[in-house]
Each structure stands twice: as structure tokens, then as C-alpha cells.
Fold these 2 entries.
Entry 1:
Amino acid sequence: MLEAINLSKSFSDKQVLDNLNFTVAPGEIMCLLGANGAGKSTTLNLFLNFLHPDSGQALIDGADVHSNNSSKDKLVYLPEQVNLYQEFNAIDNLKYLASLSDLQVSDEQINAALDETGLEQSARKHSLKSYSKGMRQKVGIAFAIIRQAKVLLLDEPTSGLDPSATREFIKIIEQLANKGAAILMVTHDFYCAHTLANKIGIMDKGQLLTLLDNKQLSINTLENKYHELISGTSVVRKAS
Ligand SMILES: Nc1ncnc2c1ncn2[C@@H]1O[C@H](COP(=O)(O)OP(=O)(O)OP(=O)(O)O)[C@@H](O)[C@H]1O
């Protein structure tokens, strides 16, 4: 469970987050949409304890990430570019990451996690230098599987992915949510947000303007709501 309680953050005299409140329950996927500079990545950075809030709390399973270091053990973060160690192959990267988390993992466990992500067998022993963004992401997601992460934070995971890779990504994330992970994803991708999310928050200028029940929305309604809220305009699509 992920909870933002009255989270506020300023840089110098500029308020970039203003009293943010939301929860992401186990098995739930929440997407944050918003214009550039709305405060989405700052929100993730507060949950990662890379930044400290001026006021409010970022909680993982009820523990404040700022005062409880071990709450980060439950979390895996996938940045927009998953780089890892370029010279290592997928298996060695995962062994190394696991060792940093004091986890003992066998090759069988690593391969089982990579099987879940769909990373091809033939690619696993090649160095990450030769990997596409989608393949790197699968290695990052395999780490979340190995670590049995309860919380996944994703920053613009589908930017630069082709449609097939996006579809594969969506399937893997759905599987992780079905296994009980609480997932918070920052994105500019309406299709991905609409396909995956249970709820969608639209942010602007540090505020969560609305929290929508995605299952009640068509993608057109979502897009229109976004544009109405962010720029005061809506998009009218012609039927073809
Ligand atoms: N370390 C920092 N120091 C000063 N200002 C910052 C810092 N980090 C972010 N900001 C500012 O905070 C605001 C919110 O930035 P943030 O990166 O959270 O937005 P975002 O919604 O993720 O945008 P984007 O969609 O472009 O990634 C922006 O005005 C940004 O310039």
C-alpha cells in the first residue's frame, strides 16, 4: 500500500507540490498524468526518499519512507531509462542487483523471473549494451519479480517503446498487479494509462486536480477531461 498524505514540496520559493493526497492499494494501478513540470517525478522522488517533503508524508505499508529506511526494501523503481550495468548480461545484472539487496538467488530463479517478462533466452547472455529499451525494462521488471516487490514506481515507462513492446509491457505490469503489487506510474501515454490504470490522477502546477475511476471512462473522455483541466480546451474526434 502506497499513501501520499498532505504531501507538499517547494524548491526555493517555488511550490512544486501542494497538499497531495492519494492511496494505491495492493493490486491497484494508479497513473499520474500531467503537463511537463506538474510535479509527477517529484512525487516519485518523495516516495524514493531522494527528496524530503516540506510537510506531509509518503507512506509505504503505513511507514514513512523518510523516517523508516527499511520501507524502501519493498519498493522497486523503474526510471525512464533502465540502464543498469552495460557490460554485464541480464543474468549477471540481476545477480549483482540481488546481491546489493542481500538476496541469494539461483540461476533458475533468475531465469524463471526473466521467463515471466518474456525476455528471449537467446538475449540473456548478451551484454546490456545491445539491448533495446523494452529489453532493459524487462530486466528491471525481473528484478521486481525476484525481489517480490510490494510497490512499483514507474517513470514514463512506455516513452520510446514501439506498439508491440508497449503491449508486452502492459501485460507484464498487469501480471504484477494481479500478484498484489501496488503500482504508481507517471506517464504521458493516454493509451497505456487507460489500458492499465484502475485510477488516474491528473496533475497541474503541483496539485492533483482530479482522481478518476478509469474503469468508468472511455479513452476519449479521459483525453477530453485532461485537456479541459490542463488547458481549458477539449478535443472533438470525428468518427471515421
Ligand atoms: N531539484 C530541483 N530543484 C529545483 N527545481 C526542481 C527540482 N526538481 C524539480 N524541480 C521543479 O519542480 C517542478 C516539477 O518538476 P517535476 O520534474 O516533478 O515535473 P514533472 O511533472 O515530472 O514533469 P515532466 O513531465 O516534464 O517530467 C518543475 O518546475 C521543476 O523545474
Entry 2:
Amino acid sequence: MEIVESIELLQQRMMSARAAGKTIAFVPTMGFLHAGHCSLLEEGRRRGDLLVLSIFVNPTQFGQGEDFEDYPRDLQKDCTLAQEAGVDLIFAPSAVAMYPHGYATEVNVAGITAGLCGASRPSHFRGVCTVVTKLFNIVQPHVAVFGTKDFQQLAVVKRMTRDLNLPIEIIGMPIYREADGLALSSRNVYLDPEQRQQALALSQGITLAQELVKQGQTDAATVIAAVSCHLGAQSQVRSDYVAICHQSTLEPQQQIDGDSVLLVAALVGRTRLIDNGYLMDLS
Ligand SMILES: Nc1ncnc2c1ncn2[C@@H]1O[C@H](COP(=O)(O)OP(=O)(O)OP(=O)(O)O)[C@@H](O)[C@H]1O
Ligand SMILES: CC(C)(CO)[C@@H](O)C(=O)[O-]
Ligand code: BAL
């Protein structure tokens, strides 16, 4: 496994791989890898001859007062996990290499970025789309793998890839959870034991909603109220949003159907967590 910091060197490696007819699979991350990331890497390993992992805590997707400085980092452990997952190449650029003095270009996807996380983090998706576009241009993958834990991010990246005619297949992988239901997230490390326990309200809220729908409830407002009430019962949990949306457009829905997804974001103490789940099992 090779670790590359230089954009130019990475581009040379990718050009050689393409010239040799290799399929390039790419998993973009901000590092501090956990089993959720490893599930993306496993899928990437299955789909590509060459598996590239990027580790870059992207400053432009963090708003004022957010946790950019404190974001957990452990490159050494990431390298060990990446090697075990069969990564061929880690791309870990510096912020100054990605955004040199005079950098002036942003990528903005309208509409689908306005609500949900975009409402409370207004510049977030502009930062994500800008860095993902740059990473796509540098790595030039055939396939890129993302997690559905960041459901809106995945929808935005799919929209952007279509809109910009990028010849990249975007794959979404299921949410990897702890045994008790908590979605794995690098930010879980911020939680103290009591907050860790109360954070279960997010996944429990999703299960509660799924049960209500199974019992025949199709009114979105009723389900949202039940989930909000469950979150509100925890002293350290403050709901940011509970929404029921169409899985592709992310438009809010009043009636629940086979395309409905429940999306939740909440502050647990000072840690912002997100989770989601489909509401109807059509299988
Ligand atoms: N539990 C999970 N299951 C599956 N994929 C995940 C999970 N957590 C993160 N991912 C995916 O890993 C990729 C990189 O995400 P990132 O590095 O931000 O990790 P994270 O754990 O989501 O961190 P954060 O705490 O910042 O939300 C994204 O595509 C994200 O959706
Ligand atoms: C896609 C991404 C790597 C862009 O910085 C980040 O938003 C993430 O880790 O989900
Ligand atoms: N996985 C999303 C990264 C962020 O919250 O900035």
C-alpha cells in the first residue's frame, strides 16, 4: 500500500493505472476510520482492480464554530485498517495543496442542498461538492463508494455527478451499526457514556417510525411527532430535524409510501449526529 500526499504523483499513478486498463474504485473519507468505512472499502475492493482511499479533513465543509480543529484524526491507525481492507493507495493531501493561495472555485448544487443538513449547515454542501469534484478530477475513478448514513450527501453527490456528466458510477452502501443500533460515526468518539446511551434515541426513533408504518400509519406528521417526542424525552438530545422525504428528490412528503425515508439530525450534548431509515420494507 502506498501513501501519496502529492496531487501530481497521485495523478501520475492514476494515469498509469488507466493506461494498464485497470478499473479504479474510490472511497473518499475524512479519516478516523471505523467499521462503516471498512464496509465501503470492501465494496470498493470488489468493484475495482485498484482501490484508492482518500483521507482529507476538508476545511471548506465546516462552518464557523463547527469542529474542524477538533475533528478526530489518527493517520497511523487509518493506515493499518486500510491495509487490512486491501487498499492499494491512500491519498492524503494537505489543505494547502488542495486550496492553494488564490483558490477561487466552488461547486454548488441547488435545490436538494437547501433543506435538512443544508438548512443548519448553509455552506456545508458547497464545501462537500467542491472537494468531491476536486477529488474526482484528481483520482478519476470509474466507481466511487459512499455511505447512506450521510443520506443527503449521497443524493447531492449523485445529482452533481449526473448534472456535470461525470463518468463515475456512484454506489451507496447501507448504514453500518453497533450491536445496539447506533450508527457508526467518527464523531461518536466525542460522546461521554451517558451521551452514548442517549444517542440511541436516533436509531430507536427510526425503529419506532418503522413500527408505526407497519401498523398502518401513513400520515407523515403523526410519525414525525412520535419520533420527535422520543428524542425530546432524552435530557442531552436536542433535535435539529426529523423529516420524512422522498428518497431521490428529498422533497418532504405528507403521505408515507414505498419511497419514504425518515431522516434525523440531533445534537447529543455538543455532538451533531445524523441517522436515517426507509419506512416501508417492500421486499
Ligand atoms: N456507519 C456508517 N455506515 C456506512 N457508511 C458510513 C458510516 N459512517 C460513515 N460512512 C460513510 O463514510 C464516508 C466517509 O464519511 P466520514 O469520513 O465523514 O465518516 P463519518 O463517520 O460519517 O464521520 P462524521 O462523524 O464526520 O459524520 C461517507 O460516505 C459516509 O457516509
Ligand atoms: C465526502 C467527504 C469525504 C468530503 O469531504 C465527506 O463529506 C465525508 O467524509 O462524508
Ligand atoms: N460525513 C459528513 C462529514 C461532515 O459532517 O462534515
